[in-house]
Amino acid sequence: MRLVLLSGGSGKRLWPLSNDARSKQFLRVLEDQEKHLSSMVQRVFGQLNEVGLGESTVIATGKGQVEMLESQLGKEVPLIVEPERRDTFPAIALAASYLYTMTNASLDDAVAVLPVDPYVDTAFFKRILDLEKLLGETKADLALMGVKPTYPSEKYGYIVPDTSENKGYIKVDHFTEKPDTEQAKQLINKSALWNCGVFAFRLKYVISILESLGLPLNYEELTKQFAKLPKISFDYAVVEKAKNIVALPYEGFWKDLGTWNTLTEEMATKQIGNGIISDDSANTHLINELDIPVTVLGVSNAIVAVSPDGILVSDKEESPRIKEVMKGFAQRPMYEERKWGSYRVLDYTRYSANNEEVLTKKIKIAEGANLSYHCHHMRKEVWTIIKGNGRYAENGVIRSIKPGDVVIVTAETLHAIIADEALELIEVQIGSQLIEEDIDRKLLNWEEIEASCAQVRG
Protein backbone atom coordinates (compact mmCIF):
# COMPACT_ATOMS: atom_id res chain seq x y z
CA MET A 1 0.00 0.00 0.00
CA ARG A 2 1.12 3.55 -0.80
CA LEU A 3 0.46 6.42 1.61
CA VAL A 4 0.01 10.10 0.84
CA LEU A 5 0.20 12.46 3.81
CA LEU A 6 -1.41 15.86 3.29
CA SER A 7 0.60 18.63 4.93
CA GLY A 8 -0.92 22.03 4.47
CA GLY A 9 -2.55 24.93 6.16
CA SER A 10 -1.36 27.78 8.26
CA GLY A 11 -2.16 28.14 11.90
CA LYS A 12 -4.27 30.48 14.00
CA ARG A 13 -5.92 28.03 16.43
CA LEU A 14 -2.55 27.49 18.17
CA TRP A 15 -1.37 31.09 17.93
CA PRO A 16 1.15 32.44 18.85
CA LEU A 17 3.23 29.29 18.24
CA SER A 18 1.54 28.47 14.94
CA ASN A 19 1.57 30.98 12.11
CA ASP A 20 1.68 31.19 8.30
CA ALA A 21 5.13 29.54 8.26
CA ARG A 22 4.73 27.04 11.10
CA SER A 23 1.53 24.98 11.13
CA LYS A 24 0.43 22.96 14.15
CA GLN A 25 2.05 19.75 12.88
CA PHE A 26 5.50 21.32 13.32
CA LEU A 27 5.19 22.46 16.95
CA ARG A 28 7.68 20.59 19.15
CA VAL A 29 5.51 20.21 22.24
CA LEU A 30 5.06 16.42 22.46
CA GLU A 31 7.55 13.89 23.84
CA ASP A 32 8.98 10.95 21.92
CA GLN A 33 10.06 7.64 23.45
CA GLU A 34 13.44 9.13 24.40
CA LYS A 35 11.68 12.00 26.23
CA HIS A 36 12.81 14.52 23.61
CA LEU A 37 10.45 17.22 22.42
CA SER A 38 8.96 16.28 19.06
CA SER A 39 6.26 17.50 16.70
CA MET A 40 3.10 15.82 15.46
CA VAL A 41 4.65 15.10 12.06
CA GLN A 42 7.71 13.53 13.67
CA ARG A 43 5.47 11.39 15.88
CA VAL A 44 3.38 10.22 12.90
CA PHE A 45 6.42 9.31 10.83
CA GLY A 46 7.87 7.34 13.71
CA GLN A 47 4.64 5.35 13.94
CA LEU A 48 4.58 4.74 10.18
CA ASN A 49 8.08 3.31 10.38
CA GLU A 50 6.93 1.02 13.21
CA VAL A 51 4.32 -0.61 10.96
CA GLY A 52 6.56 -0.71 7.88
CA LEU A 53 4.84 2.09 5.94
CA GLY A 54 7.55 4.75 6.15
CA GLU A 55 9.31 3.81 2.93
CA SER A 56 6.07 3.77 0.92
CA THR A 57 4.93 7.20 2.13
CA VAL A 58 5.08 10.53 0.30
CA ILE A 59 4.05 13.95 1.59
CA ALA A 60 2.02 16.42 -0.47
CA THR A 61 2.76 19.96 0.59
CA GLY A 62 3.31 23.55 -0.53
CA LYS A 63 6.55 25.39 -1.17
CA GLY A 64 6.36 27.17 2.18
CA GLN A 65 6.61 23.94 4.19
CA VAL A 66 9.43 22.20 2.33
CA GLU A 67 12.26 23.44 4.53
CA MET A 68 10.32 22.80 7.73
CA LEU A 69 9.59 19.21 6.66
CA GLU A 70 13.22 18.63 5.68
CA SER A 71 14.36 20.11 8.97
CA GLN A 72 12.17 17.76 11.01
CA LEU A 73 12.13 14.58 8.88
CA GLY A 74 15.31 14.83 6.82
CA LYS A 75 15.59 14.81 3.06
CA GLU A 76 14.83 11.11 2.52
CA VAL A 77 11.04 11.46 2.59
CA PRO A 78 9.70 12.20 -0.93
CA LEU A 79 7.88 15.54 -1.07
CA ILE A 80 5.23 16.30 -3.70
CA VAL A 81 5.50 20.10 -3.85
CA GLU A 82 2.49 21.90 -5.24
CA PRO A 83 3.44 24.93 -7.38
CA GLU A 84 0.56 26.81 -5.76
CA ARG A 85 -2.20 26.13 -3.25
CA ARG A 86 -5.28 24.76 -5.05
CA ASP A 87 -7.08 22.66 -2.39
CA THR A 88 -6.99 18.91 -1.75
CA PHE A 89 -8.10 17.50 -5.13
CA PRO A 90 -5.17 19.02 -7.07
CA ALA A 91 -2.77 17.97 -4.30
CA ILE A 92 -3.96 14.34 -4.37
CA ALA A 93 -4.06 14.27 -8.17
CA LEU A 94 -0.45 15.48 -8.35
CA ALA A 95 0.60 12.86 -5.79
CA ALA A 96 -1.17 10.16 -7.81
CA SER A 97 0.67 11.20 -10.97
CA TYR A 98 3.95 11.09 -9.03
CA LEU A 99 3.26 7.54 -7.84
CA TYR A 100 2.21 6.48 -11.35
CA THR A 101 5.12 7.92 -13.34
CA MET A 102 7.98 8.45 -10.86
CA THR A 103 7.81 5.22 -8.84
CA ASN A 104 7.20 1.55 -9.57
CA ALA A 105 3.56 1.72 -8.42
CA SER A 106 1.02 -0.11 -10.58
CA LEU A 107 -2.47 1.11 -11.42
CA ASP A 108 -3.91 -1.61 -9.18
CA ASP A 109 -1.98 -0.48 -6.11
CA ALA A 110 -4.03 0.82 -3.18
CA VAL A 111 -3.30 4.40 -2.14
CA ALA A 112 -4.34 5.71 1.28
CA VAL A 113 -4.58 9.44 1.93
CA LEU A 114 -4.58 10.94 5.42
CA PRO A 115 -3.70 14.13 7.27
CA VAL A 116 -0.12 14.52 8.41
CA ASP A 117 -1.03 15.19 12.03
CA PRO A 118 -3.42 12.63 13.60
CA TYR A 119 -2.75 11.99 17.30
CA VAL A 120 -3.36 8.25 17.52
CA ASP A 121 -2.01 4.94 18.73
CA THR A 122 0.11 2.93 16.30
CA ALA A 123 -2.90 0.58 15.91
CA PHE A 124 -4.51 3.34 13.82
CA PHE A 125 -1.93 2.85 11.05
CA LYS A 126 -2.25 -0.92 11.24
CA ARG A 127 -5.98 -0.47 10.67
CA ILE A 128 -5.26 1.65 7.58
CA LEU A 129 -3.59 -1.40 6.05
CA ASP A 130 -6.99 -3.14 6.17
CA LEU A 131 -8.39 -0.63 3.67
CA GLU A 132 -6.50 -2.36 0.86
CA LYS A 133 -8.24 -5.65 1.64
CA LEU A 134 -11.62 -3.88 1.90
CA LEU A 135 -11.18 -2.34 -1.57
CA GLY A 136 -10.54 -5.82 -2.96
CA GLU A 137 -13.50 -7.46 -1.21
CA THR A 138 -16.07 -4.78 -2.02
CA LYS A 139 -14.76 -3.45 -5.37
CA ALA A 140 -15.64 -0.03 -3.99
CA ASP A 141 -14.47 3.23 -5.59
CA LEU A 142 -13.38 4.54 -2.20
CA ALA A 143 -12.77 2.96 1.18
CA LEU A 144 -12.81 5.31 4.14
CA MET A 145 -11.79 4.83 7.73
CA GLY A 146 -14.04 6.33 10.38
CA VAL A 147 -13.62 6.60 14.13
CA LYS A 148 -16.31 5.09 16.32
CA PRO A 149 -17.69 8.10 18.27
CA THR A 150 -17.24 8.24 22.03
CA TYR A 151 -19.63 11.17 22.52
CA PRO A 152 -21.98 13.30 20.34
CA SER A 153 -19.42 15.82 19.10
CA GLU A 154 -20.38 18.95 17.18
CA LYS A 155 -16.78 19.45 15.94
CA TYR A 156 -16.51 16.54 13.51
CA GLY A 157 -18.14 15.39 10.31
CA TYR A 158 -19.98 12.03 10.32
CA ILE A 159 -19.96 9.11 7.87
CA VAL A 160 -23.55 7.83 7.79
CA PRO A 161 -24.27 4.20 6.73
CA ASP A 162 -27.20 3.16 4.57
CA THR A 163 -28.00 0.45 7.14
CA SER A 164 -26.98 -0.36 10.67
CA GLU A 165 -26.30 -3.97 9.69
CA ASN A 166 -22.85 -4.97 10.94
CA LYS A 167 -20.66 -6.52 8.24
CA GLY A 168 -17.36 -5.42 9.75
CA TYR A 169 -17.62 -2.38 7.50
CA ILE A 170 -20.36 0.00 6.46
CA LYS A 171 -21.80 0.94 3.10
CA VAL A 172 -21.78 4.74 3.05
CA ASP A 173 -25.09 6.50 2.40
CA HIS A 174 -24.10 10.14 2.96
CA PHE A 175 -22.02 12.53 5.03
CA THR A 176 -23.14 15.05 7.65
CA GLU A 177 -20.91 17.97 8.56
CA LYS A 178 -20.69 19.20 12.16
CA PRO A 179 -24.24 18.52 13.42
CA ASP A 180 -25.63 19.91 16.65
CA THR A 181 -25.55 17.67 19.73
CA GLU A 182 -29.06 16.28 19.30
CA GLN A 183 -28.49 15.42 15.65
CA ALA A 184 -25.12 13.89 16.55
CA LYS A 185 -26.87 11.57 19.05
CA GLN A 186 -29.26 10.42 16.34
CA LEU A 187 -26.36 9.79 13.94
CA ILE A 188 -24.52 7.71 16.54
CA ASN A 189 -27.68 5.62 17.03
CA LYS A 190 -27.49 4.92 13.28
CA SER A 191 -23.90 3.63 13.66
CA ALA A 192 -22.39 6.73 12.03
CA LEU A 193 -18.63 7.24 12.35
CA TRP A 194 -16.52 10.35 12.83
CA ASN A 195 -14.85 11.29 9.56
CA CYS A 196 -11.12 11.43 10.35
CA GLY A 197 -10.05 12.30 6.81
CA VAL A 198 -8.63 8.88 5.89
CA PHE A 199 -9.59 7.21 2.62
CA ALA A 200 -8.14 4.80 0.09
CA PHE A 201 -8.56 4.07 -3.63
CA ARG A 202 -6.91 2.13 -6.40
CA LEU A 203 -4.37 4.32 -8.17
CA LYS A 204 -6.19 3.84 -11.48
CA TYR A 205 -9.31 5.50 -10.00
CA VAL A 206 -7.69 8.94 -9.69
CA ILE A 207 -5.55 8.50 -12.81
CA SER A 208 -8.74 7.88 -14.81
CA ILE A 209 -10.17 11.16 -13.45
CA LEU A 210 -7.07 13.00 -14.67
CA GLU A 211 -7.53 11.39 -18.08
CA SER A 212 -11.16 12.51 -18.21
CA LEU A 213 -10.03 16.08 -17.52
CA GLY A 214 -7.63 15.95 -20.46
CA LEU A 215 -4.64 16.63 -18.24
CA PRO A 216 -1.21 14.95 -18.51
CA LEU A 217 -0.56 11.89 -16.39
CA ASN A 218 3.18 12.53 -16.26
CA TYR A 219 4.16 14.11 -12.96
CA GLU A 220 6.56 16.68 -14.39
CA GLU A 221 4.10 17.74 -17.08
CA LEU A 222 1.21 17.93 -14.63
CA THR A 223 3.35 20.09 -12.35
CA LYS A 224 3.79 22.55 -15.23
CA GLN A 225 0.03 22.55 -15.91
CA PHE A 226 -0.98 22.48 -12.24
CA ALA A 227 -2.99 25.70 -12.58
CA LYS A 228 -5.37 23.89 -14.97
CA LEU A 229 -6.53 21.54 -12.21
CA PRO A 230 -9.85 22.67 -10.71
CA LYS A 231 -9.42 24.49 -7.42
CA ILE A 232 -11.69 22.23 -5.40
CA SER A 233 -11.57 19.82 -2.50
CA PHE A 234 -11.28 16.06 -3.06
CA ASP A 235 -14.61 15.67 -1.25
CA TYR A 236 -16.47 17.80 -3.80
CA ALA A 237 -14.50 16.67 -6.86
CA VAL A 238 -14.44 12.92 -6.18
CA VAL A 239 -16.17 11.68 -3.03
CA GLU A 240 -19.58 13.20 -3.78
CA LYS A 241 -19.52 11.69 -7.29
CA ALA A 242 -18.39 8.21 -6.26
CA LYS A 243 -21.11 5.57 -6.60
CA ASN A 244 -19.71 2.92 -4.29
CA ILE A 245 -18.14 4.03 -0.98
CA VAL A 246 -17.48 1.85 2.04
CA ALA A 247 -16.00 2.66 5.43
CA LEU A 248 -14.06 0.72 8.01
CA PRO A 249 -14.66 1.48 11.71
CA TYR A 250 -11.72 2.20 14.00
CA GLU A 251 -12.41 1.82 17.71
CA GLY A 252 -9.01 2.77 19.11
CA PHE A 253 -7.62 6.06 20.38
CA TRP A 254 -7.92 9.07 18.04
CA LYS A 255 -7.78 12.75 18.86
CA ASP A 256 -7.64 16.03 16.99
CA LEU A 257 -5.03 18.24 18.68
CA GLY A 258 -6.20 21.37 16.92
CA THR A 259 -6.81 23.63 19.92
CA TRP A 260 -4.83 24.56 23.01
CA ASN A 261 -7.20 22.76 25.38
CA THR A 262 -6.89 19.45 23.48
CA LEU A 263 -3.16 19.80 22.83
CA THR A 264 -2.25 20.43 26.48
CA GLU A 265 -4.15 17.29 27.51
CA GLU A 266 -1.52 15.23 25.69
CA MET A 267 1.59 17.14 26.73
CA ALA A 268 3.88 15.17 29.04
CA THR A 269 4.99 18.28 30.95
CA LYS A 270 3.21 21.37 32.23
CA GLN A 271 6.05 23.67 31.28
CA ILE A 272 8.31 24.14 28.26
CA GLY A 273 10.81 26.98 28.39
CA ASN A 274 11.90 29.56 30.92
CA GLY A 275 9.48 30.35 33.75
CA ILE A 276 7.68 29.37 36.94
CA ILE A 277 4.18 28.00 37.55
CA SER A 278 3.07 28.27 41.18
CA ASP A 279 1.82 25.12 42.90
CA ASP A 280 -1.68 26.57 43.26
CA SER A 281 -1.98 27.09 39.48
CA ALA A 282 -3.81 23.82 38.83
CA ASN A 283 -4.08 22.43 35.29
CA THR A 284 -2.15 25.35 33.82
CA HIS A 285 0.42 24.97 31.04
CA LEU A 286 3.23 27.33 30.11
CA ILE A 287 5.06 27.19 26.76
CA ASN A 288 7.70 29.89 26.44
CA GLU A 289 9.95 30.16 23.38
CA LEU A 290 11.63 33.37 24.51
CA ASP A 291 14.68 33.76 26.75
CA ILE A 292 12.86 35.98 29.26
CA PRO A 293 11.23 34.25 32.26
CA VAL A 294 7.43 34.06 32.54
CA THR A 295 5.86 33.59 35.99
CA VAL A 296 2.31 32.34 36.51
CA LEU A 297 0.86 32.79 40.02
CA GLY A 298 -2.48 31.43 41.22
CA VAL A 299 -3.99 31.02 37.74
CA SER A 300 -5.68 27.67 37.13
CA ASN A 301 -7.04 25.97 33.99
CA ALA A 302 -5.09 28.28 31.73
CA ILE A 303 -2.72 28.19 28.77
CA VAL A 304 0.12 30.71 28.63
CA ALA A 305 1.92 30.56 25.28
CA VAL A 306 4.79 32.90 24.49
CA SER A 307 6.65 33.13 21.18
CA PRO A 308 8.30 35.81 19.02
CA ASP A 309 4.88 36.21 17.34
CA GLY A 310 3.05 37.21 20.54
CA ILE A 311 1.69 36.18 23.92
CA LEU A 312 -1.53 34.30 24.67
CA VAL A 313 -3.06 34.05 28.14
CA SER A 314 -6.35 32.16 28.01
CA ASP A 315 -8.71 29.99 29.97
CA LYS A 316 -8.33 26.56 28.37
CA GLU A 317 -12.01 26.11 27.60
CA GLU A 318 -12.08 29.52 25.91
CA SER A 319 -8.86 28.98 23.92
CA PRO A 320 -10.60 27.73 20.71
CA ARG A 321 -11.88 31.31 20.28
CA ILE A 322 -8.38 32.46 19.35
CA LYS A 323 -8.92 31.69 15.64
CA GLU A 324 -11.91 34.02 15.54
CA VAL A 325 -10.23 36.71 17.61
CA MET A 326 -7.14 36.69 15.38
CA LYS A 327 -9.12 36.84 12.13
CA GLY A 328 -7.81 39.71 10.05
CA PHE A 329 -4.68 40.06 12.19
CA ALA A 330 -1.70 39.73 9.85
CA GLN A 331 2.01 39.95 10.57
CA ARG A 332 5.14 38.39 9.18
CA PRO A 333 6.17 35.15 10.93
CA MET A 334 8.70 35.97 13.65
CA TYR A 335 10.16 32.46 13.87
CA GLU A 336 10.89 29.87 11.20
CA GLU A 337 12.69 26.56 10.98
CA ARG A 338 14.74 25.95 7.87
CA LYS A 339 16.67 22.94 6.59
CA TRP A 340 19.90 24.62 7.76
CA GLY A 341 18.62 25.67 11.21
CA SER A 342 16.26 28.41 12.36
CA TYR A 343 15.86 32.14 12.82
CA ARG A 344 13.97 34.39 15.21
CA VAL A 345 13.04 38.00 14.52
CA LEU A 346 14.24 40.18 17.40
CA ASP A 347 13.10 43.59 16.17
CA TYR A 348 11.51 45.31 13.20
CA THR A 349 11.28 49.07 12.62
CA ARG A 350 10.19 51.21 9.67
CA TYR A 351 11.59 54.75 9.51
CA SER A 352 9.17 56.98 7.63
CA ALA A 353 11.68 59.83 7.26
CA ASN A 354 13.82 57.92 4.75
CA ASN A 355 11.35 55.08 3.96
CA GLU A 356 13.83 52.53 5.25
CA GLU A 357 13.21 49.29 7.13
CA VAL A 358 15.47 47.64 9.70
CA LEU A 359 14.97 43.99 10.65
CA THR A 360 17.08 42.20 13.27
CA LYS A 361 17.27 38.39 13.42
CA LYS A 362 19.05 35.80 15.51
CA ILE A 363 20.11 33.01 13.17
CA LYS A 364 21.18 29.51 14.18
CA ILE A 365 22.95 27.29 11.65
CA ALA A 366 23.38 23.61 12.48
CA GLU A 367 26.84 22.04 12.36
CA GLY A 368 27.71 21.08 8.78
CA ALA A 369 24.82 23.08 7.30
CA ASN A 370 25.18 26.11 5.05
CA LEU A 371 23.24 29.03 3.66
CA SER A 372 23.06 29.19 -0.13
CA TYR A 373 25.36 31.34 -2.28
CA HIS A 374 23.07 34.26 -3.00
CA CYS A 375 22.67 38.02 -3.19
CA HIS A 376 20.03 40.62 -2.38
CA HIS A 377 19.00 43.54 -4.56
CA MET A 378 17.11 45.76 -2.12
CA ARG A 379 19.01 45.47 1.15
CA LYS A 380 22.34 45.23 2.88
CA GLU A 381 23.05 43.01 5.87
CA VAL A 382 25.35 43.24 8.86
CA TRP A 383 26.29 39.94 10.51
CA THR A 384 27.82 39.65 13.97
CA ILE A 385 29.08 36.16 14.82
CA ILE A 386 28.29 35.31 18.46
CA LYS A 387 28.92 31.57 18.68
CA GLY A 388 30.73 28.81 16.80
CA ASN A 389 33.17 28.74 13.91
CA GLY A 390 32.67 28.50 10.17
CA ARG A 391 33.64 29.74 6.77
CA TYR A 392 32.23 32.71 4.87
CA ALA A 393 32.21 33.03 1.08
CA GLU A 394 31.92 36.44 -0.58
CA ASN A 395 32.35 37.19 -4.30
CA GLY A 396 34.70 34.29 -4.89
CA VAL A 397 36.71 34.53 -1.67
CA ILE A 398 36.35 32.22 1.35
CA ARG A 399 37.59 33.11 4.82
CA SER A 400 37.22 31.74 8.34
CA ILE A 401 34.83 33.38 10.80
CA LYS A 402 34.66 33.22 14.59
CA PRO A 403 32.79 34.87 17.50
CA GLY A 404 33.25 38.65 17.45
CA ASP A 405 33.69 38.90 13.68
CA VAL A 406 31.47 41.39 11.87
CA VAL A 407 30.56 40.94 8.21
CA ILE A 408 28.97 43.70 6.11
CA VAL A 409 27.11 42.37 3.07
CA THR A 410 26.17 45.11 0.62
CA ALA A 411 23.42 44.77 -2.00
CA GLU A 412 24.35 42.63 -5.04
CA THR A 413 27.14 40.89 -3.07
CA LEU A 414 27.24 37.12 -3.50
CA HIS A 415 27.65 35.49 -0.11
CA ALA A 416 27.25 32.20 1.78
CA ILE A 417 28.27 30.67 5.09
CA ILE A 418 28.90 27.15 6.41
CA ALA A 419 28.96 26.09 10.06
CA ASP A 420 32.01 23.96 10.88
CA GLU A 421 30.44 23.84 14.33
CA ALA A 422 27.01 25.12 15.31
CA LEU A 423 26.89 28.82 14.49
CA GLU A 424 24.82 31.67 15.92
CA LEU A 425 24.82 35.17 14.49
CA ILE A 426 22.87 38.39 14.71
CA GLU A 427 21.75 39.66 11.32
CA VAL A 428 20.60 43.25 10.79
CA GLN A 429 18.88 43.87 7.46
CA ILE A 430 18.62 47.45 6.20
CA GLY A 431 16.75 48.40 3.05
CA SER A 432 13.72 49.87 1.32
CA GLN A 433 11.87 46.55 1.18
CA LEU A 434 12.76 43.61 3.42
CA ILE A 435 11.04 40.58 1.92
CA GLU A 436 12.01 36.90 1.68
CA GLU A 437 11.56 37.07 -2.09
CA ASP A 438 14.60 39.36 -2.34
CA ILE A 439 16.95 36.38 -2.54
CA ASP A 440 18.73 35.59 -5.80
CA ARG A 441 20.21 32.11 -5.23
CA LYS A 442 23.13 30.97 -7.37
CA LEU A 443 24.40 27.78 -5.69
CA LEU A 444 22.97 25.57 -2.93
CA ASN A 445 25.65 23.02 -1.97
CA TRP A 446 28.82 24.08 -0.19
CA GLU A 447 30.97 21.83 -2.42
CA GLU A 448 29.74 23.77 -5.45
CA ILE A 449 30.23 27.08 -3.67
CA GLU A 450 33.78 26.17 -2.69
CA ALA A 451 34.57 25.01 -6.21
CA SER A 452 33.32 28.31 -7.67
CA CYS A 453 35.51 30.41 -5.38
CA ALA A 454 38.97 31.06 -6.82
CA GLN A 455 40.55 32.20 -3.59
CA VAL A 456 40.59 30.73 -0.10
CA ARG A 457 42.25 32.46 2.82
CA GLY A 458 42.28 31.73 6.55
Question: What can you tell me about this protein's structure?
Answer:
With about 450 residues, the chain is of the alpha+beta class. The protein folds into three domains: about 1-255, Spore Coat Polysaccharide Biosynthesis Protein SpsA, Chain A; about 260-325, no CATH class; about 340-455, Sandwich (Jelly Rolls). Helix content is about 20%, strand content about 35%. The chain contains eleven helices and 31 strands. The strands form seven sheets. It has a six-stranded antiparallel β-sheet with strand order 20-21-22-29-24-27. Helix 3 (about 90-100) packs across helix 6 (about 205-210). The chain is globular. The mean pLDDT is about 90.
